[in-house]
Amino acid sequence: MKQIELLALVDDDDTFIFITKKIIEKTNNVKEVKVFNNGLDALNYLKDNLNTQYKLPEIIFLDLSMPIMDGWQFLDEFTSIESNNIKKIIIYICSSSISPHDILKAKKISAVSDYIIKPVTKDKFTEIILAL
User: What's the pLDDT band for 120 if we cut at 50, 70, 90?
Assistant: First the structure.
């Protein structure tokens, strides 16, 4: 099973972050988890580290509903910097929204690998790692 150096959780829900980090830790497949409470903080981190790509996450779990910059706004900005030789970052939308509109919209964005309805279970996380 592949070892992930860095995974980013972009979410403002402390309970989701706590539970998801525990699930990730139990799998022993991720060395480091970085947490950002909104899309702007995550985007600024990515921009600040474009030239030190080993600091960039391999996977991002992105919520859609957040203060300051939501997941949709993050994706708009991310796709503009993604083409600047940024290493491939796999993005999973992790949302409690079951709206078919949100799911369809997310699947139309090429940077998004999948849409996961919260919570992220250990089985789902293991499935994601195995698919890498």
Answer: confident
Read off the DSSP letter of residue 32: E
Q: 45 Cβ partners below 8 Å, 6+ apart?
A: 8, 34, 36
Cα dihedral 87, 120, 116, 32, rounded to 10, equals -10
Question: Would you say residue 41 has pLDDT above 90?
Answer: yes
For 10, 17, 22, 52, 90, the CA distances from 4, given in Å and listed in that order, are 17, 18, 15, 17, 11
Query: Per residue in 82-117, pLDDT tens?
Result: 766 667 899 999 999 899 999 999 999 988 999 999
Give the DSSP per-residue string, 73-85: HHHHHHHHHHTTT
Widest CA span in the chain? 37
For residue 38, give the nearest of 3, 13, 6 by alpha carbon. Answer: 13
Between CA 102 and CA 132 the distance in angstroms is: 24
- Strand segments (E) across 45-132: 59-62, 90-95, 112-117
